[in-house]
Design brief:
350 residues; alpha+beta; three-stranded mixed sheet
Length: 350
């Protein structure tokens, strides 16, 4: 979930304008989208990010907890999922996000050191209607439906869900581990346990649980998407791309899967492949703005400045009447300036 390292000022040689290239590069360093205001994110006393959710329709509450303190701060995302906390003292914090129908997220950050994060919301394993959360809204493998889940395992799972809602992560982990010990083939328990492990930064343990969950339910792409996120966190980019490519094959209609794959390809500097993945995500969900924004940077990286400008204009027109996006407007002005200087250079060579 870190930003994309850029290297030096010559990373965008097609610009022929070091100061413009560096400005764009700096935006990319602050976030993969590069659409956060520079001066606000470089401070050691500010933390921001984006809640990534396909089809996000309204604001989402975000809570910043100081570890060891009962005091917390709250804010809401803007229509694009962006959020920020300013004037935050140095220390260790949790960023918490909860939304009905989605798994709770408890993301650890340290200030200074973590200026920008991505919060991915995944559909909850607990059904709003189904008994005991078995299956829920997910596509459940026949082995899960016919598995003989002991009642005690189900009771421990239900208690774990309540502990999760109360943000008692360690107690939830203990309940889920007990549930899995009683029912080793309990898909939802493996999936939820992986999520709880991720909250405590036990990424290797989470990886094992997600691998087991996918083995139990190979028609469900959620374990693969979460695995890909873990590999991105570890900067194991080749493995992330491999797993997310598999997620796309399992769920070809998932905009989130294509978007995550695009992020992996982008960080691997495989810009043509990233463009293909982001484009597919946009086609699958036209309201999912994150891949639309990433496409801008893919075009710039490939020197397709005219195409980037055209898409920017389309985004501005689409969001006409909504709150303005100053960073997008600034990015657009940089691309316009770069195109103008390229044109001037071409005329001088004639």
């Amino acid at each position: 979930m870190a930003g994309v390292p850029c290297g030096n000022k010559s990373i965008l040689p097609w610009y022929g304008i070091p100061e413009v290239a560096w400005s764009v590069c700096f935006l990319l360093t602050c976030s993969s989208f590069g659409l956060a205001r520079q001066s606000e994110l470089v401070s050691a006393f500010a933390v921001g990010g984006q809640v990534v959710l396909s089809g996000l329709k309204g604001p989402v509450i975000v809570i910043l907890d100081h570890l060891g303190s009962k005091n917390n701060r709250r804010t809401f995302t803007d229509p694009r999922g962006n959020f920020e906390f300013r004037n935050v003292p140095q220390g260790a914090y949790n960023i918490r996000v909860g939304l009905d129908g989605f798994e709770n997220v408890n993301y650890r950050v340290d200030l200074p050191g973590t200026p920008y994060v991505f919060i991915f919301l995944n559909r909850s394993a607990v059904s709003d209607h189904g008994p005991h959360g078995l299956g829920g809204k997910r596509v459940v493998d026949i082995r899960q439906l016919t598995a003989n889940i002991p009642k005690q395992a189900l009771r421990e799972y239900e208690k774990a869900v309540r502990e999760t809602k109360d943000h008692n992560t360690q107690r939830a982990i203990e309940r889920l581990e007990k549930s899995i010990k009683l029912a080793p083939d309990f898909y939802n328990a493996h999936l939820d346990l992986a999520q709880e492990y991720r909250k405590t930064n036990r990424l290797d343990a989470a990886e094992r649980e997600l691998t087991r969950a996918f083995d139990l339910n190979p028609r469900e792409g959620t374990p693969l998407i979460q695995l890909g996120e873990i590999y991105l966190e570890k900067s194991n980019l080749e493995r992330a791309a491999e797993v997310l490519s598999q997620a796309v094959r399992v769920e070809p209609g998932s905009a989130i899967a294509h978007y995550a794959l695009g992020r992996a390809r982008y960080r691997l500097s495989e810009y043509a492949e990233a463009e293909q993945a982001f484009t597919r995500a946009v086609l699958l969900d036209k309201d999912f703005e994150a891949p639309q924004l990433m496409l801008l940077h893919v075009y710039v990286r490939q020197g397709k400045l005219d195409k980037a400008l055209s898409r920017m204009d389309a985004l501005v027109q689409k969001n006409h009447g909504n709150s303005p996006n100053p960073a997008l407007e600034k990015f657009r002005s940089e691309v316009v300036a770069a195109l103008a200087k390229l044109k001037q250079g071409a005329e001088k060579q004639k």
